[in-house]
Automatic annotation (TrEMBL):
One of the protein's GO biological processes: methylation
Pfam families documented for this protein: Methyltransf_13, Methyltransf_14, Methyltransf_23
KW NAD (keyword) present: no
Ranges where the C-methyltransferase domain occurs: 244-403
InterPro entries noted in UniProt: Methyltransf_Zn-bd_dom_put, Methyltransf_Zn-bd_dom_put_sf, MeTrfase_14, SAM-dependent_MTases_sf
Name the record gives this protein: Class I SAM-dependent methyltransferase
GO molecular function: methyltransferase activity
Keywords of this entry: Methyltransferase, Transferase
UniProt domain Methyltransferase putative zinc binding: residue ranges: 3-64
Keyword Methyltransferase found: yes
Length: 408
């Protein structure tokens, strides 16, 4: 296997989470008695460019199909984040009714709706037909396709180019990151701006966030490596923000290399230095992550077995992809966790892949009154524990599994 950026042969395993189905491949009642397809979930570190990457065992067109169940609009904190972003970008870059905003992986229009409300022209590019339909229902024009050089050239030939080209949590999802970034170069106006948000590899390692590894995430990115990838395609990073979202993310700002209208922020050099001092540009930093994950696995299994022996009932909240990684790596099934609650109707009355834990609505939680609720999307723990604070009325407690098990 070669690095998908620099083509160096990959020999160094970052972590092996054994085998797992695709994390969003929810099951119907009828499918419970059918075989499931499991794929290796092994992640490598390139010791040349330090791109951390999973082998593409699960083809992207099979993951992002017409029944994709992730809709961005079901998280109120994520919607608030999107709205703040539109305010910031509109003010900083002077966007108006003469501008063109294009979002890559626009999902259900969760973000573009806020630009649209300001009268700024928008276009979404979204490979999953059902989420794109939800965006179109909001009046947001959407192209149902995978983004890359081919689509960028097609859109450019029609006169469609971006003043602001954005993508939230998509850069890690693309199997061919070079083609994806090359496409951004093609579709960006001469003085246009690119912003991309993605989980920061430094936070993943330092805070033991191994559950953010799943087949939909092909790459795990440091600022050091992303800078190399963009520069190789003629794009220059001129600013970066460190964000609290998804357990710690980066928002990078890019422009054409030949665009001299934007100054390079001091943030760029500061973050490069921070990563270097942390060790991200050396091989030792990426060692021993397997052992850190094993510690979480043993703690969670011990907790669940202890509660089972004590006659306590355990449920979970948030049928998120990261939760499926955690449960499947730990080997947890529906005998230890009775059900999981999720606000998304597309997931309700289905079953989690591999673990076969049933997905229920919030009314079910109120009726069953479990002793413990494990918060699987720990990055939203403040939002979720506030939303479900009523479980304390019957003595219920929350369990946060990452970065180490906490009962609150």
């Amino acid at each position: 296997m070669q690095c998908r950026f620099c083509k160096t042969e990959l020999k160094h395993v970052f972590i092996d989470l054994i085998n797992s189905p695709a994390s969003n491949s929810f099951l119907t009642q009828e499918q419970l008695n059918e075989p499931e397809t499991f794929y290796p979930l092994k992640v490598y570190t390139c010791h040349n460019c330090f791109l951390v990457q999973v082998d593409e065992y699960k083809k992207s067109d099979a993951i992002f199909n017409s029944d994709y169940v992730y809709f961005s609009s079901f998280s109120t904190s994520w919607l608030a984040h999107a709205k703040r972003y539109t305010e910031l970008m509109t003010e900083r870059f002077g966007l108006n009714e003469g501008s063109q905003v294009i979002e890559l992986a626009s999902n259900d229009g969760y973000l573009l709706q806020y630009f649209q409300q300001k009268g700024i022209p928008v276009l979404g590019v979204e490979p999953t037909a059902n989420t794109a339909e939800a965006a179109k229902a909001k009046g947001i024009e959407s192209v149902v396709d995978f983004f890359g050089v081919r689509l960028a050239k097609d859109l450019s030939a029609k006169g469609i180019k971006a003043d602001l080209l954005l993508g939230n949590n998509v850069l890690a999802h693309v199997p061919d990151i070079v083609d994806f970034v090359s496409g951004m170069k093609v579709i960006l106006k001469p003085q246009g701006v690119i912003t991309m948000e993605f989980p920061h590899l430094m936070q993943l390692v330092d805070n033991n966030q191994f559950d953010t590894i799943y087949h939909e995430h092909f790459s795990y990115l440091s600022f050091h490596t992303v800078k190399q990838i963009f520069e190789a395609q003629g794009l220059e990073l001129f600013d970066v923000d460190e964000l609290p979202t998804h357990g710690g993310s980066l928002r990078i700002y890019a422009k054409h290399k030949e665009d001299n209208s934007k100054e390079i922020s001091a943030n760029v050099e500061a973050l490069l230095k921070k990563e270097e001092e942390k060790g991200l540009t050396g091989p030792e930093y990426y060692n021993n992550f397997q052992q850190k994950a094993l510690g979480v696995k043993l703690a969670l299994i011990s907790f669940l077995v202890e509660q089972k022996k004590g006659g306590k009932r355990v449920a979970a909240y948030g049928a998120a992809a990261k939760g499926n990684t955690l449960l499947n790596y730990c080997g947890v099934k529906n005998d230890l966790i009775e059900f999981v609650v999720d606000r998304n109707p597309a997931k309700q009355d289905k079953f989690l892949p591999a673990s076969h834990i049933p997905v229920k609505n919030e009314e079910y939680l109120k009726a069953e009154k479990p002793d413990y609720v494990i918060v699987l999307p720990w990055n939203l723990k403040d939002e979720i524990t506030e939303q479900l604070s009523y479980i304390k009325d019957w003595g219920g407690r929350f369990v946060i599994p990452i970065p180490s098990l906490q009962v609150v």
